[in-house]
């Protein structure tokens, strides 16, 4: 009976689907365990072998936990809104919902392209997903709840006294009773103080404008990353090296009215929460740096000859007497107000230039020094001396106050800036306020061993004393106060795109109103084209039916807007991270029509026990998810403060690209070994045309592209064309993609699963090498032969030998430990060792092979199910108890001693380990082989170390 993976795998995948083998229950006597993968964006390119790595790891773990008696929730869905589908729609004229559906379910798109479909690809690999709970973020029955959460955020404010989000009605009650003077809230800066009588006298619109300054999601004019090429605003984590991550388009900074989320309200809780979760230190550090907590002072500098003031946040108020100049971010509101006529042209030219650089680029680039003098001067709060005010792009508008008091003697960037513009109008000599410190070559940035000098009342103090005293004096003169600051800025929550969640918002007198929850979802309308309108409005500006009728409570034709009972709807859509910021909760109760999840389901599952996904989401999805979870906890909806207890970041599987070499200026390709000194251009070739010996199929290559049809080839002496090889990121553009479908068709899904786990530690990047697949396939065939020969099942009821039990229990111990430690690659090695040992022991004992099938099951579930069934069982192997490790089978009772004569080993003898030296000597001396070696002589000395050596001397 031969091992036929295709037949076996199709059989068991059908069985699992029909029997809903992996359906989790929302109430169970078993303990719960929730294992989650970061769900994929379903692109038309489908899966390559790098994508399933994390899914296979989580599946191994999920199956293991079922064997341990847990009720496991292991769901899967699709993050199906986003830019790629919309870009594809713009290029091909297809509806994003159509291409998204085909990408998931498979089929033929409008261009006649055959799409495998994510679902079919995932099913083929044999994952134990509870598909009954599948979610798609672009389905109205899902995004109605995203819209509902948005409404909850809009109707909430952050009370710093209670340290949590509260309903906006509680804030209104305070305003009605006592005004806002004593309100301790996270809000916009510089809100005017009003009394209760003033509040009650305000019009409804005036009250709404004030409340927008407190709401957790609010409309404000903000500096954003505008990407003209994509026609939308991007989040910081969507920009790489100054261009959009998607498409590589330039990004500029500009001001726009946007919806924003007050994530900054949760900065301290997001920091503190990192202490309570089992995540890698590198991810935690990324979030700590992104949140960027710093303690210092807020200092006010008056601008000379103006009524304006410059507010500066500094972590070093002790250095205030060292202020040599000030720097504002180019986007700072004050720049236009204080710049002198003489400096206006230079300043405006500089602002235009810096608008093309992203914030990330500006933060990372410490070498480029640029700036412009505004011509204005600020006044030192203590000395009243004039301080020149510059602008420079190393200062960011969104960090702190967007202004820096530059102390070159204590800061490297300020020092470099001062020296670069040294001698120019508006740049003063660097002031040194550190005793016994030479700053002729560099700034002194350390806080240690500081003694303040040339600083009036701060002279002789150290950093801590100086900081405390400086803050006290600033507060005394009304020009500063102690403050904790965070780098974390409120998250822009608008996209000028079509393919995203519509906001449940309409506008009355230009002010946002929420659509009542019972009328959700507000479904994305049909549009003729997905580009912005001719007058620059987002694509929803093209919608013919996109207005809200407040009497009928439904969406109606846009041309019916009368601003009496029918009002315009929001034209922006939500960003890609909206739907992914709460999706793990929807899996808990995926078909609930009235709530995003029931209280009972949330209380049972609580949060995710294990989350597996990429580290690239550290400061995007993982931060936003924690923010939304904390908000929902505050409002009594989420049961826990943190969404993900344990996080594992899988490494990347890299592709091994193939290169052909074209002689420059010709259509002749030279084999790698024949290049020599010739000038060649390396060109990616599709890896499907190259065999495991790096030989190119020349005919296939010529047929690949029209311009290669008449190409000539300089081959090796053996008549082969050898390609070059290089490990790179696996991608379609590098033609190094290997699809899991091909591997499954040729070797089976169990081979793919085992091989991906065998490649190396889960969290490390590793190159794919198809040549290694055959070895894993060979292992599965060898495993099969323990159970079957050509005539059928050969498993017997023989009593297992001591060696059989030792091999099995060694494997039980190793596999259980490895899975708990996520060391999956070493488990696969242990399986191979075990099967080799059992084969050499000629073991076919049921007492050994039944538990072995269970051990293999998390990794290679199809073959394990088949073996279990052939052994006579009628139920799935998936929930059979995991074998129990028994130490006694690994305890050695005997030792094989080498017996040496004058240091040379002549034979071995197996003896019980509990024998004394005298007993060992007696047995050895009576052994015929000893007598033969001695040939009648008596040894001078018999050296015996129990458990180690036997040596007869002389």
Q: What is the compact description of this entry?
A:
The protein has 30 helices and 39 strands. The chain is an alpha+beta fold and 954 residues long.
Structural key phrases:
954 residues, Rossmann fold, 39 strands
Textual characterization of the structure:
- It holds the Pfam family tRNA-synt_1_2.
- The model has no long low-confidence stretch (mean pLDDT 94).
- Strands 13, 14, 15, 16, 17, 18 and 19 form a 7-stranded mixed sheet that branches. Strands 28, 29, 30, 31, 32 and 33 form a 6-stranded mixed sheet that branches. Strands 2-1-26-27 form a 4-stranded parallel sheet, with helices on one face.
- It contains 30 helices and 39 strands.
- By secondary structure, it is α+β, with helices and mostly antiparallel strands.
- Strand 3 (107-108) and strand 4 form a beta hairpin.
């Amino acid at each position: 009976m031969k091992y036929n993976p295709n037949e076996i795998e199709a059989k068991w995948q059908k069985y699992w689907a029909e029997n809903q083998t992996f359906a989790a229950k929302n109430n169970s006597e078993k303990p719960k365990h929730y294992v989650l993968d970061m769900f994929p964006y379903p692109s038309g390119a489908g899966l390559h072998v790098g994508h399933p790595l994390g899914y296979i790891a989580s599946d191994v773990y999920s199956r293991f936990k079922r064997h341990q008696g847990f009720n496991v929730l292991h769901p899967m869905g699709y993050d199906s809104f986003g830019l790629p589908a919309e870009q594809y729609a713009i290029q091909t004229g297809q509806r994003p919902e159509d291409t998204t559906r085909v990408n998931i379910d498979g089929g033929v798109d409008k261009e006649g392209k055959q799409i495998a479909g994510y679902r079919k690809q995932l099913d083929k690999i044999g994952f134990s997903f509870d598909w009954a709970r599948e979610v798609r973020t672009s389905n109205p029955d899902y995004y109605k709840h995203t819209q509902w959460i948005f409404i909850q955020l809009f109707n909430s404010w952050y009370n710093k006294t209670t340290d949590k989000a509260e309903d906006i009605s509680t804030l209104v009650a305070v305003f009605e009773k006592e005004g806002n003077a004593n309100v301790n809230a996270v809000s916009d800066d510089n809100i005017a103080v009003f009394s209760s009588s003033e509040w009650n006298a305000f019009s409804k619109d005036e009250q709404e404008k004030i409340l927008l300054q407190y709401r957790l999601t609010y409309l404000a004019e903000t500096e954003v990353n505008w990407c003209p090429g994509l026609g939308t605003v991007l989040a910081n984590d969507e920009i790489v090296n100054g261009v959009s991550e998607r498409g590589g388009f330039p990004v500029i900074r500009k001001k726009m009215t946007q919806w924003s989320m007050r994530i900054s309200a949760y900065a301290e809780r997001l920091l503190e929460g990192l202490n309570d979760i089992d995540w890698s230190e590198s991810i935690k550090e990324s979030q700590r740096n992104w949140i960027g907590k710093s303690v210092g002072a807020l200092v006010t500098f008056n601008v000379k000859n103006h009524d304006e003031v410059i507010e500066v946040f500094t972590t070093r108020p002790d250095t205030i007497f060292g202020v040599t100049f000030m720097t504002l971010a180019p986007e700072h509101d004050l720049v236009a107000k204080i710049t002198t006529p003489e400096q206006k042209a230079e300043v405006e030219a500089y602002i235009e230039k810096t608008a093309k650089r992203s914030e990330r680029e500006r933060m990372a680039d410490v070498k480029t020094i640029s700036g412009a003098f505004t011509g204005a001067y600020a006044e030192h709060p203590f000395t009243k001396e004039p301080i020149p005010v510059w602008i420079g792009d190393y200062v960011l508008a969104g960090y702190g106050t967007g202004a820096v008091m530059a102390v070159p003697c204590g800061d490297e960037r300020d020092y470099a800036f001062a020296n670069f513009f040294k001698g120019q109008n508006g740049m003063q000599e660097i002031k040194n306020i550190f005793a016994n410190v030479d700053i002729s070559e560099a700034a002194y940035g350390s806080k240690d061993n500081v003694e303040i000098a040339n600083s009036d009342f701060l002279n002789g103090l150290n950093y801590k004393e100086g900081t405390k005293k400086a803050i006290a004096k600033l507060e005394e003169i009304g020009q500063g106060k102690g403050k904790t600051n965070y780098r974390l800025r409120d998250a822009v929550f608008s996209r000028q795109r079509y393919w995203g969640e519509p906001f449940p918002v309409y506008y009355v007198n230009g002010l946002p109103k929420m659509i009542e929850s019972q009328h959700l979802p507000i479904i994305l309308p049909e549009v003729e084209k997905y580009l912005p309108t001719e007058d620059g409005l987002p694509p929803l500006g093209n919608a013919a039916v996109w207005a809200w009728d407040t009497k009928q409570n439904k969406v109606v034709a846009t041309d019916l807007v009368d601003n009496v009972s029918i009002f315009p709807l929001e034209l922006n859509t939500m960003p890609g991270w909206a739907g992914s910021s709460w999706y793990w909760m929807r899996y808990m109760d995926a078909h609930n029509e009235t709530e995003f999840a029931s209280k009972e389901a949330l209380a049972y599952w609580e949060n995710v026990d294990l989350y597996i996904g990429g580290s690239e989401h550290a400061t995007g999805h993982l931060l936003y998810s924690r923010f939304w979870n904390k908000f929902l906890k505050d409002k009594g909806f989420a049961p826990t403060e943190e969404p993900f207890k344990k996080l594992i970041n899988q490494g990347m599987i890299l592709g091994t690209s193939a290169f052909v070499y074209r002689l420059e200026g010709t259509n002749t390709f030279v084999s790698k070994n024949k290049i020599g000194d010739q000038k060649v251009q390396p060109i990616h070739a599709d890896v499907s045309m190259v065999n495991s010996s790096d030989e190119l199929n020349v005919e296939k290559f010529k047929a690949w592209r029209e311009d290669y049809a008449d190409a000539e080839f300089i081959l090796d002496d053996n008549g082969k064309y050898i390609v070059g090889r290089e490990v790179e990121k696996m991608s379609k553009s590098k033609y190094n993609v290997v699809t899991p479908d091909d591997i499954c068709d040729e070797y089976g899904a169990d081979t793919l699963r085992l091989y991906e786990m065998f490649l190396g530690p889960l969290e490390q990047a590793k190159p794919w090498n198809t040549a290694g697949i055959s070895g894993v396939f060979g292992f599965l065939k060898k495993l099969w032969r323990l159970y079957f020969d050509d005539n059928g099942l050969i498993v017997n009821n023989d009593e297992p030998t001591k060696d059989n039990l030792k091999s099995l229990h060694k494997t039980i111990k190793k596999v259980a430990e490895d899975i708990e430690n996520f060391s999956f690659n070493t488990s696969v090695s242990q399986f191979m060792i075990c099967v080799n040992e059992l084969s050499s022991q000629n073991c076919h004992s049921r007492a050994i092979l039944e538990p072995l099938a269970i051990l293999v099951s998390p990794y290679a579930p199809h073959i394990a199910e088949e073996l279990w069934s052939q052994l006579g069982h009628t139920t799935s192997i998936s929930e059979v108890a995991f074998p129990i490790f028994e130490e006694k089978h690994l305890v050695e009772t005997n030792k094989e001693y080498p017996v040496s004569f004058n240091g040379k080993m002549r034979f071995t003898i197996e003896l019980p380990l509990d024998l004394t030296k005298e007993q060992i000597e007696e047995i050895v001396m009576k052994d015929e082989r000893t007598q033969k070696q001695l040939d009648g002589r008596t040894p001078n000395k018999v050296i015996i170390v129990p458990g180690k050596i036997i040596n007869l001397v002389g």
